[in-house]
Specification:
Number of domains: 2
Shape: globular
Number of helices: 10
Order of helices and strands: EHEHEHEHHEHEHEHHEH
Strand content: 15-25%
CATH architecture of the largest domain: 3-Layer(aba) Sandwich
CATH class of the largest domain: Alpha Beta
Strand order of the largest sheet: 2-1-3-4
CATH topology of the largest domain: Rossmann fold
Helix content: 40-55%
């Protein structure tokens, strides 16, 4: 039976930074079932006290202390959260204090700087909306607008990589699944014709894919190890046939995947 833990993402603004880093770190622990709770806009002592009550309630319910990823900058609220019974990972304290020492000046401790609205923010949100609309082949129109189209078998990591590229870098990243019909016809989906120069393949070891799919659909043909081996073999065959560069993402974080894709394709951040 897998271990179950509760993780909180707490911020005095949106919580996006805490979520992004927290999820990336938690994803390294496949055997643990995490219940995640985001508590944004903790910008007053009363809100912090309510958050502490929620954290402590989770501690009592789980029988194990929660994990808190915090990007709180306000001193009073930080102090209150630290009184909870959780493991507190203060993501700003880890970096702000060494930088203050290095630069010889105090930081502004201004709230919300990294997510301030502006031209870059609008561009990233446009990219995220595009990626969400073109996830897993859901909408095929306007695929020509994509900066990159990730292809591969189901559950090989296309969606998180696409979303990370969009959210962090404003890349218009679409993704499209390679399925049994494509393998039997030994051809790329018709929707992808003309987009060959934008295609980049993701592949994964069969054993890891079997593990991922089994969590979603245990004891199914979809998750069976032999089927995973077949699909990956056929997908890689198509990639080689159509000269599609591809990356084995087994054991690689979404950050590493995105960075490799940017480096290999020359896409601008």
């Amino acid at each position: 039976m897998s271990q179950k833990r509760t993780a909180f993402f707490i911020s005095d603004r949106t919580g996006i930074t805490a979520e992004n880093l927290g999820h990336s770190l938690l994803s390294q622990f496949d055997s643990i079932a995490f219940r995640t709770v985001t508590l944004p806009f903790i910008d007053a002592p009363g809100k912090a006290q309510a958050a502490v009550a929620q954290i402590n309630a989770a501690h009592q319910a789980d029988g194990q202390r929660p994990i808190v990823f915090s990007t709180l900058l306000l001193p009073a609220e930080r102090a209150l959260i630290e009184q909870s019974g959780a493991l507190i990972l203060d993501l700003f304290e880890m970096f702000i204090e060494p930088l203050e020492t290095e630069f010889g000046i105090p930081s502004s401790h201004a709230v919300g700087r990294s997510h301030a609205a502006g031209q870059n923010y609008s561009a990233r949100m446009d990219a995220v909306n595009y990626t969400l609309n073109h996830d897993d082949g859901g909408i095929s129109r306007e695929l020509h607008r994509a900066d990159i189209v990730l292809v591969g078998v189901s559950r090989c990591g296309k969606t998180p990589a696409s979303l990370y590229l969009a959210l962090q870098f404003g890349i218009y990243a679409a993704n499209y699944p390679l399925v049994a019909e494509d393998f039997s016809g030994n051809a790329l989906p018709a929707t992808l014709h003309g987009l060959e120069k934008k295609l980049y393949g993701l592949t994964i070891r069969p054993e890891r894919l079997h593990q991922i799919r089994s969590e979603r659909a245990p004891d199914s043909h979809y998750a069976a190890l032999e089927n995973c081996r077949y699909e990956i073999k056929q997908a890689e065959k198509l990639m080689r046939q159509f000269n599609i560069p591809h990356l084995d993402v087994t054991g690689i974080s979404v950050e590493e995947i995105a960075t490799t894709l940017l480096h290999q394709t020359g896409l601008r951040r």
